[in-house]
Amino acid sequence: MYLKSFKRAMALATGLIMSVAMLLAPIPQTSLKAEAAITNSNFLKANGKELRNNYGSGDVVKLRGTNAGGYLVQEFWMTPTNNSSDVNCEMDIYNKLTQRFGESRMRELVNTYQDNYWTTQDFDNCAAMGINCIRLPFWYLNLVDFNGNYLNNCFQRMDWFVSEAGKRGIYVILDFHGAPGSQNGSDHSGIDGGDNKIGASQFFFGNNAWNNQQLYYDIWYKVAQHYAGNPTVAGYDLLNEPYCTYRYNSGYSDDYLHTMLWNIYNNAYNVIRSADPDHVIIMEATWDAWDLPNPSSYGWSNVMYEYHNYLYDDYDNAAGRQITNMQNKLNGISNQNYNVPSYMGEFSYFNNINAWKQGLQLLNDSGINWTTWTYKVTGSNNNWGLYNQNVSKVNVATDSFDTIKSKWSQVGQSSANTALVNAVKQYTPGVVSGGSNSGNSGTVISDGEYYFKASNGSVVCADNTGADPLIANRGSYGGAWETIHIVNNSDGTVSLRSGANNKYVCAVIDEQNQLLARSQNISTWEKYYLIRLSNGNFALKAYANGKYVCADQNKNNVLYADRDSAQGWETFEIYTTSGSKVQ
């Protein structure tokens, strides 16, 4: 019921280790300003159950975003390639194109697909949604040839992806989605074993398992060596969905499967640490929290535990089981109570938009990091994708070289799945804003009394004893009407209590999104992300609709939560009531 391999069906229906290391010496289409770029102060490390920037000593960061699924490894249910009798996965693509055209021209066609599938506009779309993390699935043949030799400029595409994301304040998780030999025999690993997925899992089983594992360690060493010190990389996701569909019915004992996987994780951990002491290492449970060990039993530090969650038998959430199912998964994570950050790396709430809203709120309230599966899919595919493609599909077995190249040149085209995009962006934290704070959560300013000065130089006031919306119209701080008490909430948001009437400032979403000091208690509409910008100023992002607060100079400087980015009118200086500027 949790298994990712059901995606295709549903969519179509609607010691040596260290020696190795030593030998390897309607969304606005706008880009955020350069000041949003990730800097060294944004480098993430695990600190207890949280990720914190500034190498683990700074503010709490919540990663909330999506996956770049279908980009570096195709799954035909969601990508513009057709199944045929002998082409059902990425390996089949490589083999068939090599058989027909030779390895060099195969690479030319694959590069055409990958050159066009993900574009700078896709990064802009993510930034406009407030996404601050993209999980990037890759498989081993992105980096090596059939014989395990590293390709020339093998990191070029990954480097481009990391660089473009970082420019926009978006972290990247590097996800080893398809290991040599396949870790699960499913198409999303690059190799599809059909009805014999265990037999196709030659990363774990069979005569080639040892060699495949050595290449896997080798690749991780080179990846870690290459990206050591890069602050845009949020972490290394060791292995996607090991065992997958046969986790609980393989005939092997839990102890056997656990021991085999955990030892591989430990080996990979040691290899990576020999090249990179700082990046977070992410370990996946297939499927439940008890499928991962207590990290202290292996001496692991600076790690994050990852989970995936899918429920297919209440696809439209008619019985409310989408939410119940996720709550059960979160309860399991809580019950294990490991002292590591938790991450829901893949999930979908399928057809019901209200289930998406309720489910994302559930994840945010739990304090968990998350990335949806996925950003882009072919067709509509029942809300699997934030963006949908309607492009011609390739038949790898019969289309000519030129036809394949022409069709795969068009795979970047997509359009917003508007209802889903508008739902998801209400629960995203916003891109990293440079400086010491990530713009996501954590105590940016201590609880206390302050006043806000807008970009027009005027102080924000709750006029008419708070009966009128907040407005930036005072020449100086005068007292209670300009006083705002900042309250830090446990989920990383802040609430603002006006000194004019001692009520909380509400973003009135069902009217014009104006800010009004009217609430006795804190709920969704009274929460904001307080974001420290690189120039020392601040932005407020309403939790309820994901929009930035603007002192709109075209509307008499009244404050509205209605902007997609924070640049001029959306920035504020904050002062203590004694007149000291908060830096």
Question: What are its keywords?
Answer:
583 residues; alpha/beta; TIM Barrel; Trefoil (Acidic Fibroblast Growth Factor, subunit A); 8-stranded parallel barrel; 26 strands; globular; disordered N terminus
CATH class category name of the largest domain: Alpha Beta
CATH superfamily of the largest domain: Glycosidases
- Strand coverage percent: 15-25%
Q: Helices and strands: which structural class?
A: alpha/beta
Please state the oligomeric state of the protein chains shown.
Answer: single chain
Largest sheet data: 8 strands, parallel, barrel
CA-based gyration radius: 25 Å
Mean pLDDT: 90
Number of domains: 2
Overall helicity: 25-40%
Give unreliable regions as ranges.
1-6, 8-35, 434-442
Shape, per Cα inertia axes: globular
Distance between the termini: 50 Å
* Secondary-structure arrangement, i.e. CATH architecture of the largest domain: Alpha-Beta Barrel
- How many distinct helices? 12
CATH level-3 fold name of the largest domain: TIM Barrel
Spatial ordering of strands, largest sheet: 4-5-6-7-8-9-10-11
Number of strands: 26
